[in-house]
Write a structure and sequence with these properties.
Length: 247
Amino acid sequence: MRIDVITIFPQYLTPLRESLLGKAIDRGQLQLAIHDLREHTTDRHRTVDDAPYGGGPGMVMKPDVWATALDAVVAASDPAAAPALIVPTPAGKPFTQAVAAELAGRRQLIFAPARYEGIDQRFVTDAATRMPVYELSIGDYVLAGGEAAVLVMVEAVARLLPGVLGNPESAVDDSFGTGLPGLLEAPSYTRPPVFRGLPIPDELTSGNHAHIARYRRDESLRRTAAHRPELLAALPPEALDAGDYQV
Ligand code: 6GU
């Protein structure tokens, strides 16, 4: 997969070259290019924003500068990659594990994170005539800009790419992965067997795999009920198994 990010803060995206993603880049599973939006301005002050039509606080990013930058990235791309544009915004659709999986199936993603009060909407409207556009929010809170959301989305997508995770099964059993539809993951434990007086739950040391699976499933249900009751309420009846009715 190829990922392009256009931003006025290129340094903000450098963590994407660390850790798991850095290794994927080194192995050639992921190509990452960060582009400075200001390189696509034409005035002496390298202006990227202006006052909002209709008034109000803050500034709006200029559609002409964004469109020029996007055109340059598209022109340098393989047309067969059919890139999709991702515009992070708190006014977008929720970025979920299902959306991450959909994006992981594409060959190229171009991210356009905004600062200030966002980008002139005509940039999105115009781009959508040429490519798929996703306006996406990472949660119900407001960030100072979309760059942190890009870090989140790229990490969630890249770990789903073939060969990026050491153990592909760890993506399956994750909260919101395909192993436990609609449930949160059970808590995890490792050595020592007693930590500050706290033992490991007996079920996990029993060696009985059916027992362990039942215990983890019950803990998933308990955690989901405590932290995310709306997820439990939304489960279709067939997502429950016979043992669940005792919980
Ligand atoms: Cl994607 N951007 C910004 N600026 N704030 C957000 C967000 C995105 N998602 C949640 N809050």
